[in-house]
Amino acid sequence: MKKPDYHILVCNSYRVAGDAQGACNKKGATNFIQYINDECMERGLDVAVSSTACLNVCAQGPVMVVHPLNFWYGGIDSEEKIDEILDALENEEAVEAYLISD
After folding, report:
1. pLDDT tens for each residue of 84-98
2. Of the four listed, 4, 26, 56, 63, which is most buried by Cβ atoms within 10 Å?
3. Does any domain span residue 70?
4. Of 11, 4, 2, whose CA–CA distance to 89 is shortest?
5. Number of H helices, E strands in the chain
6. From CA 49, how far away is CA 100, in angstroms rounded?
7. In the prediction, which pLDDT does 13 show?
8. What is the pLDDT of residues 20-63, one digit of tens each?
């Protein structure tokens, strides 16, 4: 199996019981998963996109993590912000304005 170049995690606030209850989900994170997939495909980026359980930074949600670069982004609440992140990812750069970790 060929591993993708990047793995994007989108917090969807799933809890142990399987219910999505937290901030990221309530702020519409689930709506961005298909958009991210489509945009990555259009750009020719080799990316796997996954919805996750709670990433425990609810106050900064919606949260998106890009591995293996370990870029943690917060406040990703629009397609425009996702576009900025994907533009930067094409050059393996971060969008400093949205980073929530060092």
Report:
1. 999 999 999 999 999
2. 63
3. yes
4. 4
5. 3, 4
6. 20
7. 80
8. 567 888 888 888 999 999 999 999 999 999 999 889 898 899 99
Q: Are 29 and 74 in contact (CB under 8 A)?
A: no
Residue 46: which domain range? 6-98
Crossing angle of helices 79-89 and 30-43, rounded to 10°: 40
Q: Decide if 48 is inside a domain.
A: yes
Give the amino acid at 90. Answer: E
Residue 64 parent element (H or E): strand 64-67
Q: Count other C-beta atoms under 10 Å from residue 62's C-beta.
A: 29
Identify whether 1 is part of a domain: no
Number of other CB atoms surrounding residue 94 within 10 Å:
17
Residue 16, pLDDT above cutoff 70: no
CATH number at residue 21: 3.40.30.10
What pLDDT, on a 0 to 100 scale, did the predictor assign at position 64? Answer: 97
Q: How would you classify residue 95: left for phi > 0, otherwise alpha for psi between -120 and 50, otherwise beta?
A: beta
DSSP 99: B
